Amino acid sequence: MPQQPAPQKEDPFASTPPAYNQPPRASANDQKETLIAANLSIEGKIQGAGHVRVAGQFKGDVNVEGNLTIEQGAKVIGGVRAQTVTIAGELEGNVDAASRVELQASGILNGDLKAGSLTVAAGSRMRGNAEFGWDESKTGQTARRPETGSVA
Question: Which of 132, 136, 125, 135 is closest to 149 using CA atoms?
Fold first, then answer.
């Protein structure tokens, strides 16, 4: 009796590679993220579109049409303008015209803050004035000056 060949098993590695090996597909709304790594110290100015994540040290102003994230252990010295600012490290400077600021438990802000909304986690620290919740373009109240709160 002739022997039949053994059925061949499918090689799981012969199929298309898993999704984690494929580059992410960028949609039109996705913005690139720039990273300042933990071992870097940079001085200058950041300006443009996209998101910025600081894990190292940066000295200078940041003005982006995206989000700024300051990682735990990182430090930024300078003024900040971004859509969303997340502070888990330290920021020495003012935050101006952000739609949202998140001060996380390990975050430190030494400077004034002007934002649409502010989220403050227990354990975070701030020294400066804060203005938030006032959107004059939506309320139409341009004659009324927003109150500022001092935090020390």
Answer: 132
